[in-house]
Amino acid sequence: MNAPYVAKTQAFAIKTECRRYEGRVAIVTGAAQGLGRVIARRLAEEGAHVVMVDVQEEKVKRAAVLLQRETNQQFLGFGGDLSVAGVADEIVAETLKAFGRVDTLVNNAAALIRLRLVDFTEELLQKAVDWNVWNTLRCCKAVLPHMIERRYGRIVNIGGEAWRTGAPFHTLLAGVGKGSMVGLTVTLAGEVIGQGITVNCVSPGGIETAADGDPVPTESIRDPSWTGPGVMEELARLGAAARISMGRPSHPTEVAAAVAFFGAPEASFVTGQHIGVSGGMAMI
Ligand SMILES: NC(=O)c1ccc[n+]([C@@H]2O[C@H](COP(=O)([O-])OP(=O)(O)OC[C@H]3O[C@@H](n4cnc5c(N)ncnc54)[C@H](O)[C@@H]3O)[C@@H](O)[C@H]2O)c1
Helix and strand tally (H, E) in the chain? Predict the structure, then answer.
């Protein structure tokens, strides 16, 4: 009997020769681990100085030190809960103090809380909205006055394909959280279209987030109560039946490549767009 097929990600990190961020400054949220860490690294590899923000203060500061050493670009790491009023404003103020500019904001921070709507406690419901909607809203609002003044800015929001494939357990994370990222992207893009600022959205499918390059990975912030009983088994069953997906999770560098395009100066005529980086999980 044939062994069951196990989908595996690419065993490599995709490298870039591009230097589109020379002299630029980027803020990446949720950058202590996973995709955010890889995006931060990618932008630095292209010449950016990077401000990393995460509620996991120690971890994000450690990542900033390591990435500065690895890329020879300047990194700053800040701890803080971005869903709380004032935190994003402080980060933007610190960034301007240190570098005098913010060219690119990547709104990556989110909480992967996957439960059926009926299984949410009041507390988790609140957290899911706070950490999947308010983070991004507050970061956009904080950075816009500076971008409007300079008549330049690139905002990239991280979505997730489950908002349009309708996956179970994703009503809060994807339906409310990622669906609102797409809506926010389009409406905000329209609002700032005459001010040199673009707003776009990248939606991953499944990411091999453990491949984030952290030499000493620590425990994830994801609380066990954020994943309901049987969720992973059910999602694996549905994933196996996926029609047109490439049948493997993405390496985070594959997602970071799309983010780097939208966040770069050259993407000057692209705004209000959404792209799935999901191996064909959803098309168009
Ligand atoms: N992992 C996947 O398969 C997948 C699939 C689709 C979309 N996504 C999206 O990609 C992005 C990154 O995913 P990941 O797997 O790397 O997630 P992750 O959970 O590994 O990392 C998210 C980071 O955001 C931080 N964070 C969350 N809320 C915050 C807040 N309020 N203030 C500051 N920091 C906060 C966390 O501490 C964490 O370090 C998220 O937007 C996620 O929804 C991931």
Answer: 9, 7
**Is pLDDT of 277 > 90?**
yes
DSSP result, 205-236: SSB-TT-S--SS----S--GGGB-TTHHHHHH
Q: Pick from 84, 138, 221, 222 the residue to mutate for probing ligand 1's pocket: most ligand atoms within 8 Å of its CB.
A: 221
Domain containing residue 167: 25-277
- For ligand 1, residues with CB inside 6 Å are 30, 32-36, 54-56, 81-83, 108-112, 131, 135, 158, 160, 204, 206-207, 209, 221-222
Would residue 204 count as lying in a domain? yes
Asked whether residue 1 is assigned to any structural domain, the reply reads: no
Model confidence, pTM: 0.94
Q: What is the CATH number of the domain that holds 174?
A: 3.40.50.720
Percent of the chain residues topping a pLDDT of 70: 94
Span from the CA of 112 to the centroid of ligand 1 (angstroms): 7
Q: Which tens digit of pLDDT belongs to each residue from 87-140?
A: 999 999 999 999 999 999 999 999 999 999 999 999 999 999 999 999 999 999
Identify whether 50 is part of a domain: yes
Specify the number of domains making up the chain. 1
